[in-house]
Amino acid sequence: MTGFLTGSATAMITPFTKEGVNFRAFGEMIEYQIAGGTDALVVLGTTGEPATMTEAEKEALMRYAAKACAGRAKLIFGTGGNNTGRAVELTKLAEKLGADGILAVTPYYNKCTQKGLVAYYRAICEATKLPVICYNVPSRTGVNILPETMEEIAAIPNMAGIKEASGNMAQVLETARRIRGKCDLYSGEDALNLPILCAGGKAVISVVSNLAPKAVKALVSAVEACDLARANMLNDALAPLVKACFLEVNPIPVKAGMNMLGFAAGEPRAPLTPLEEAHAAVLRHTMSAFGLEGKA
Question: CA separation (Å) from 65 to 89, 261, 288?
Fold first, then answer.
């Protein structure tokens, strides 16, 4: 299927306190995104740290997001994992709780075959009527969705597209060629948002838009308007911020950045650690130069 997602989507962080999820802060972040023109919110993606959340916390966060968003932006819930049966169960729950779509990362650690990937995504798609997005991020999972495999997956009726974060533009272009008109391509890597959009990508699923939703939306809009001069100008301005947001493993820097903006984002959960001070200084300087100042 095509046309499920266009524009800018934010891979939302999950704010924590020592007691659990900070729902009040999460609600403030949702309002910040909607005010910034974000088209969709991705909850419980990698940036949201679901790997260190309990099942009860995940369900509560999905419930809260659906209530707080109230249809003002699309809601995409991350349900993938390395246990197909559990991914299917979580997908069914996400649909019940009000998701508009599903994001399913490739199975990690198990290192399944390409045939196993097709079976995994078919099982998830058959468990729901919602659009499903594949998430290809081999640097984290150890598994890469090859273009010919994605072409087969694209034939599944409710397969909406692929969030590409392989970092390999040659592969991205070949995947785009094979799935064009069958399902959509989305950028899952902020540093490659511009070229992926220019290659026919229909949306970005961005980490940096946690901090700068208006700027990321403006970049997407410029490409949609075929104004490449403006798109390049916006991308040039965003590039230092993108670099700063990946000085350490995501979501460590972006979570620190949200704290700097005045949101009660808290710290990442172990085994992730707080941003090192030298990197925090770079991020703070970069955010200031970009015009991002604390709301407090």
Answer: 19, 21, 30
